[in-house]
């Protein structure tokens, strides 16, 4: 049985040497990150993370995007123990689905009508859907709504499309890019250690497979985001390894590829009604984790808030812990809401939250260009 809480270690009362590294713009080590996880003074972590945020994004601006989640199918054979959204192939409950073109058209039209610029499309690993289905869907969406950026399909989906279609990862991504794929969301990363991944789902792709998918995406010119879902069965050591592996791949992509990770977002595991169960991570744990991610991921330009799982007030606080982007307006969300998470805000409310926190709101697109 793996531990359900982080391993114990004596609090670190003095991080002056780590602070000196931050001021000198020196890269932090794994041991530095672990010491920060056990440092009792969150205000000091906020000070350091905010310094990095202001160095990388000096304007007193917080961006956000008008986007919509579209979950095109809930059929999935992987059976992740933390997920309450999936229905297995052949499910007899009557609520498994694949969205029709007309249903997708309606969702995209509603997004377009409010000035939306991005669709975030993800779904389950549905054995009936091979690469031709995705190519036709992307081509159709590009023709019908060319102004909406297609930010689609997590690595788990892309790996499955590759396998079920008997292609290489490069062939898969090259074909999907030609059909209209413009960006890849970082979902399915969970924690990039196989110890954790094997515990939450024995069928899940490995950490190396997730990273290789993103490596190839960057190689063929498709940018992506990176994420972390913490608070399930992970330890602080697991979280640090996650940061190190993302940072190493970003270094590699910056050096060798035309695309890279555009942003990082962390959110806490939502246990309600899931097979895995457990307890919900606290807001303080979130603030600590996002501050350390800002300090460790020194080659990532942007950090997104996770108000969807933490709530808008913690989202506001995170703007002092290294976050420079408030993420997306939530027209629709189906996955974490099935685990009891129901936070949602309008565009006007999002701008009010940003202003009340002392920043100027600015709309962006998937590429972090202002719109």
Automatic annotation (TrEMBL):
Stated name of the protein = Cyclic dehypoxanthine futalosine synthase
Reactions accelerated catalytically? dehypoxanthine futalosine + S-adenosyl-L-methionine = cyclic dehypoxanthinylfutalosinate + 5'-deoxyadenosine + L-methionine + H(+)
Named cofactor requirement(s): [4Fe-4S] cluster
Q: Does the keyword Oxidoreductase apply?
A: yes
* Recorded family membership: Belongs to the radical SAM superfamily. MqnC family.
SUPFAM superfamilies attached to this UniProt entry = Radical SAM enzymes
Residues the record lists as binding S-adenosyl-L-methionine: 82, 190
All copies of the Radical SAM core domain together span 62-301
Classification via InterPro entries: Aldolase_TIM, CofH/MnqC-like_C, Cyclic_DHFL_synthase_mqnC, F420, FO_synthase_su2, rSAM, rSAM_sf
Q: Name one GO biological process term.
A: menaquinone biosynthetic process
Positions of [4Fe-4S] cluster binding? 76, 80, 83
What pathway annotation does it carry? Quinol/quinone metabolism; menaquinone biosynthesis
Q: What is the organism lineage in this UniProt record?
A: Bacteria, Bacillati, Armatimonadota, Armatimonadia, Armatimonadales
What the protein does comes down to: Radical SAM enzyme that catalyzes the cyclization of dehypoxanthine futalosine (DHFL) into cyclic dehypoxanthine futalosine (CDHFL), a step in the biosynthesis of menaquinone (MK, vitamin K2).
Superkingdom of the source?
Bacteria
Arranged from A to Z, the UniProt key words for this protein are: 4Fe-4S, Iron, Iron-sulfur, Menaquinone biosynthesis, Metal-binding, Oxidoreductase, S-adenosyl-L-methionine
Residues noted as binding (3R)-3-methyl-D-ornithine in the record, renumbered to the chain:
154, 260, 306
Q: Which CDD domains would you find in this protein's record?
A: Radical_SAM
**Free-text cofactor note:** Binds 1 [4Fe-4S] cluster. The cluster is coordinated with 3 cysteines and an exchangeable S-adenosyl-L-methionine.
């Amino acid at each position: 049985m793996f531990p359900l809480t982080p391993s114990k270690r004596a609090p670190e009362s003095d991080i002056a040497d780590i602070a000196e590294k931050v001021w000198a713009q020196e890269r932090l080590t794994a041991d530095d990150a672990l010491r920060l996880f056990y440092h009792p003074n969150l205000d000091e972590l906020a000070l350091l993370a905010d310094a990095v945020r202001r160095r990388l994004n000096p304007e007193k601006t917080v961006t956000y995007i008008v986007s919509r989640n579209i979950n095109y199918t809930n059929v999935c054979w992987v059976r992740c123990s933390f997920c309450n959204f999936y229905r297995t192939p052949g499910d007899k409950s009557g609520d498994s689905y694949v969205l029709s073109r007309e249903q997708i058209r309606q969702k995209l039209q509603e997004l377009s009508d409010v000035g939306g610029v991005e669709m975030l499309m993800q779904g389950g690993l549905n054995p009936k859907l091979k690469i031709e289905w995705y190519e036709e869907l992307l081509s159709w969406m590009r023709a019908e709504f060319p102004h909406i950026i297609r930010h689609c399909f997590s690595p788990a989906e892309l790996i499955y499309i590759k396998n079920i279609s008997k292609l290489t990862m490069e062939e898969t991504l090259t074909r999907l890019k030609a059909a209209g794929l413009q960006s890849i969301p970082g979902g399915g990363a969970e924690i990039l250690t196989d110890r954790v991944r094997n515990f939450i789902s024995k069928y899940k792709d490995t950490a190396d497979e997730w990273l290789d998918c993103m490596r190839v995406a960057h190689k063929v010119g498709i940018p992506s985001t990176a994420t972390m879902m913490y608070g399930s069965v992970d330890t602080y050591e697991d979280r640090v390894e996650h940061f190190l592996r993302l940072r190493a791949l970003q270094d590699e992509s910056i050096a060798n590829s035309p695309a890279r990770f555009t942003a990082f977002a962390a959110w806490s595991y939502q246990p309600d009604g899931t097979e895995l169960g457990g307890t919900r991570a606290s807001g303080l744990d979130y603030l600590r984790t996002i501050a350390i991610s800002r300090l460790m991921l020194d080659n990532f330009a942007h950090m997104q808030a996770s108000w969807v799982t933490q709530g808008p007030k913690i989202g506001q606080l995170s703007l002092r812990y290294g976050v420079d982007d408030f993420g997306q307006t939530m027209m629709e969300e189906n996955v974490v809401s099935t685990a009891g998470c129901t936070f949602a805000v309008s565009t006007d409310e999002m701008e009010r939250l940003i202003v009340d926190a002392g920043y100027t709101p600015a709309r962006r697109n998937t590429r972090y260009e202002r719109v």
